Amino acid sequence: MSSTERPVGRGVLIRYRVLAYVTAVLLLLLVFYAIPVQIWGHDKGPETIIGMLHGYLYIVYLVFAFEITVKLRVPLVRMVLVLLAGTVPFGAFFAERHMTRTWEANQRRLPAVPAGHPEV
Q: Is residue 37 one of the residues assigned to a domain?
């Protein structure tokens, strides 16, 4: 382990996972409920609300996804795929699983954070 490497805190993972699931569920609601209701039911209400929620929360997802990918030092191509996962139905679920496994591998590879040392 180099002097700059240390385990990535659990808080980083939890923040990322929560936003990954929330944006994934909102995107699924948008694609499979709100847009069909807008097209065939001529009702823009659900699409407007769910679309706006997904848009704002996707920005927060980008921040947390960028944070975890940088801290785990994932390759640039993988980082871009994780960042774009929030725009593909079911994509964020797969990206979340992959990033969780990457985080777990990082935890096994590096020694634990000393007591009293900030984790996040």
A: yes
Asked if residue 115 belongs to a domain, the reply is no
- Rounded to whole angstroms, the Cα distance separating 80 from 76 reads 6
Task: Please list, in sequence order, all residues whose beta carbon lies within 8 angstroms of the beta carbon of residue 43, skipping any fewer than 6 positions away.
Answer: 37
Structural domain contains residue 61: yes
- Asked whether residue 114 is domain-assigned, the answer is no
The tokens describing 29, both together, are: 């609601």
Which range marks the domain in which residue 68 is found?
Answer: 10-108
Burial of 105 (0-12, 13-18, 19+ CB in 10 A): exposed
pTM of the model: 0.84
pLDDT along the chain (120 residues), means of 10: 65 96 97 95 94 97 96 96 94 95 89 59
Number of domains forming the structure of the chain? 1
Instruction: Take residue 1 and report the two structure tokens written for it.
Output: 């382990």
